Amino acid sequence: MGTLYRVLKGKLEGGNQLTKSPSGRKGPASSSAGGKQGMADALAEITKRSAYFQQIEEDAQKYSKAITELKAAISTFKTKDMAELIKFHKHVESILEKLTDETQVLARFEGFPQKKLEALRTAAALGSKLNGVVSELTNWKVEPPIGQLLDRTERYFNKIKGDLDALERTKDEESKKFQSHNIDFDFHILVQIKELMVDVSSSCMELALKERRQGKAAETALTGAKTEPRMAGAKMLWRAFQFAFRVYSFAGGQDDRADMLTRELAREIETDPHHQ
Fold first, then answer.
1. CA angle 175, 176, 177 (to 5 degrees)
2. Per-residue b/e over 128-146, b at no fewer than 16 CB within 10 Å?
3. pLDDT tens-place string over residues 49-108
């Protein structure tokens, strides 16, 4: 700031001096144009002296070949394969992450495809996120007790549902935007996620039914068994059924396994002596 003040003072010190007007009265000299030029000169001079901008110039020279090659690679890149998209994006970032200031350095390379770079990043980020959901659901641990399993599963479902519903509404627009940059994003992955969510829901229903039968068998084996465990079991069945219905609504349907389990779950709830 001190340097800027001194430079500007030296450049502009005559800007506010009073001069005689044609009428003989004193007034400020008209130096607007000169003042603006002085400001530009001052900033240009400070920029040249700045270690930060010197580093940007050095980066532009040091990585000139890599950036030129990257410019051509991004411009011609096209794909329908999400794995290839993510791999190429990692390659791009491995070069750009070395730059002191990406925006400033790339601005020195005329015609660099900034808009396609942004589309590439958006598509790769979306692909990675959706792949993460697929991986999470594919490896979902179905472990007793059913109450804790439903707690964990419902939390995750609530976490992803809003984002996926929003993406369903905008996927056509997003697809067109990506295609305009030769990126054919595979939105079929949304169908895969829905199918996996139905599988997880079915596994929850299976565990609920299993624990219900185990509880009934234990009650039968005991004389004078209390009714509380059966009440709790019936409520847990209803909770599993409610979750299955939410997943059904989200997925827009269910498979044969889920259909069979929901019917079985419904019969078990309806025949419970405590069912109201």
1. 90
2. eebeebeeebeebeeeeeb
3. 678 888 999 999 999 999 999 999 999 999 999 999 999 999 999 999 999 999 999 999
Helices and strands, counts by H and E, the chain: 11, 2
Domain count, the chain: 2
Q: Same structural domain for residues 259 and 165?
A: yes
Residue 217's pLDDT is 75
Tell me if 88 sits within 8 A of 126, measured CB to CB. Answer: no
Q: How far apart are CA 56 and CA 60, in angstroms?
A: 6
pLDDT (tens digit, 9 = 90+) per residue, 245-275?
Answer: 999 999 999 999 999 999 999 999 888 765 5
Same domain, 205 and 259: yes
User: 3-state class of 184 per DSSP?
Assistant: coil
Name the DSSP class of 255: -
